[in-house]
Amino acid sequence: MPVPWFLLSLALGRSPVVLSLERLVGPQDATHCSPGLSCRLWDSDILCLPGDIVPAPGPVLAPTHLQTELVLRCQKETDCDLCLRVAVHLAVHASLQAQVVLSFQAYPTARCVLLEVQVPAALVQFGQSVGSVVYDCFEAALGSEVRIWSYTQPRYEKELNHTQQLPALPWLNVSADGDNVHLVLNVSEEQHFGLSLYWNQVQGPPKPRWHKNLTGPQIITLNHTDLVPCLCIQVWPLEPDSVRTNICPFREDPRAHQNLWQAARLQLLTLQSWLLDAPCSLPAEAALCWRAPGGDPCQPLVPPLSWENVTVDKVLEFPLLKGHPNLCVQVNSSEKLQLQECLWADSLGPLKDDVLLLETRGPQDNRSLCALEPSGCTSLPSKASTRAARLGEYLLQDLQSGQCLQLWDDDLGALWACPMDKYIHKRWALVWLACLLFAAALSLILLLKKDHAKAAARGRAALLLYSADDSGFERLVGALASALCQLPLRVAVDLWSRRELSAQGPVAWFHAQRRQTLQEGGVVVLLFSPGAVALCSEWLQDGVSGPGAHGPHDAFRASLSCVLPDFLQGRAPGSYVGACFDRLLHPDAVPALFRTVPVFTLPSQLPDFLGALQQPRAPRSGRLQERAEQVSRALQPALDSYFHPPGTPAPGRGVGPGAGPGAGDGT
User: Fold this and answer.
1) Which of 319, 309, 310 is nearest to 270 (CA)?
2) What is the Cα Rg of the chain in Å?
3) Non-local CB neighbours of 242 within 8 Å, separated by 6+ positions
4) Spatial separation of the C-alpha atoms in residues 343 and 347, rounded to whole Å
5) Where does residue 101 rank: exposed (0-12), middle (13-18), buried (19+ CB within 10 A)?
6) pTM over 0.70, yes/no
7) Which of 146, 150, 9, 41 is nearest to 83 (CA)?
8) DSSP character for 75?
9) Are the beta carbons of 152 and 99 closer than 8 angstroms?
10) Residue 106 CA from chain centroid, whole number
11) Choice among 5-14, 158-167, 370-379 with the minimum mean pLDDT
12) SS3 (DSSP) at 598
């Protein structure tokens, strides 16, 4: 595409010393050679396949030197293409005829051309130059870097290579000023041009970030937090068929690479699949690790598992049989840990005091077991003084009786998670008894002196009820429950009790949980969603819910049989609170009967919501705002994943009464 003269004049100077090629008849590319030589250019490009070096059958004509020169290929007097002329100098090293390949690479363009050259016998002097062949020409953009290779076909010697940097645009500069970055465009006041910022993607189309049409000199300020390595700038004059110039100035900027990892997120899609979400592609590898309670570093499970290469926005899978809250994903780049997230904790609850057993299988059904500890993997059985070694007999018994959860299995080994609580209790029964007696005496003293302080320290019981609209909403509920567990609250939710729920049945399980919660002075939280509102409306109209409307583990559906009497008979205030998520449901969509108790929108009303979950007579804590911010930070990644899943546009995704854009915004 022709480059307007003002661009070339700015890049090359007002009087550029370049050759203006004459108009060519036929193909645009051409070749000519030194006097006495004959040469021709093949009509079409060829595949860029150098091949291996082969022995020469005799004297061969080979390239010895590359020389480049910038020229202009002009269609009109003021519309020209910047072009690179290449001269290949030749010598007879061992045939009087050769096929010379020229290979060009200038991102994103690559091509190869074939020049056929023949030397008369009279000019042959072994080892001496016999002339050159000139190729006109390879078109390239301003500011680009062109890499050139030359070799014969077949290839008898190592290829020649040369790199040519084309002139850049002096009127587009990038400068830093503290935490800000300035894009300085020094063009004439009459010049109209477009400016676009985009993320350049290795795979897939660029992702536009900002675009504006401007006039004259401009200084555009970017915050340093907006910089990532793939942030590129595109500038073009607002004229028909204009050439767009692209530069990516932040590829080597340390701040840009730091921002890239700060913006990267790991997202769990299913039990086994997850992806890395980041603005740019990056070299990384990931592996599973095991994080035990107590603050010890997460221990990579390599071996028996292995590191896997990671591609941004590409779904990856780990060969897991079951999830576990202690399983985390580590992402390394350049042998440095960049990301670590325990993806299964939101849906499966907080970290458990389980021990991980590694089973290694050898030939002839030989197998060995070791327990993963901070000091390493302790063989079982063992006489070492570590905790797992002391409890090794109990661990092996529970593994054989099927009480351990198998997380992974293949021909080389397996991973098992075994509970540790009962082992410790059996081993240290007397110590625990003494501690319990001391705690009971201390509790009695505190009860007599500071009843409200004891209640606050113990934490109020909270039963969380919700409608399982979809798996994404279940993960969102799990994230909220996990965040509330960090506060002085004892949270019960069916997500963490699926085994008991299946054994007892939803109705029996809910009745037991509700009775225990209310007897202890706790609170029942009704988490409303579009599905929950629809189900409540059915009960209020018909007294029953539609069969099969929800999954078999939906305790919310089972709970309505005794929740409704509490509201109808006026027993709900003080024991129930309602909540819904911003952008998913407006509080006005909640049936009026259930609005006889406070209904809060999350996370916008988190401080009031947490205040309602406190003990009725407990003083309002001065740390309530701090705790609300803590819960909000823990909840935000799950909200982002639910309302803006990868590959789908914002805004919200709710359906049903009161759902959709603007729901829950208070307007």
Assistant:
1) 319
2) 36
3) 4, 236
4) 8
5) buried
6) no
7) 146
8) S
9) yes
10) 30
11) 5-14
12) coil
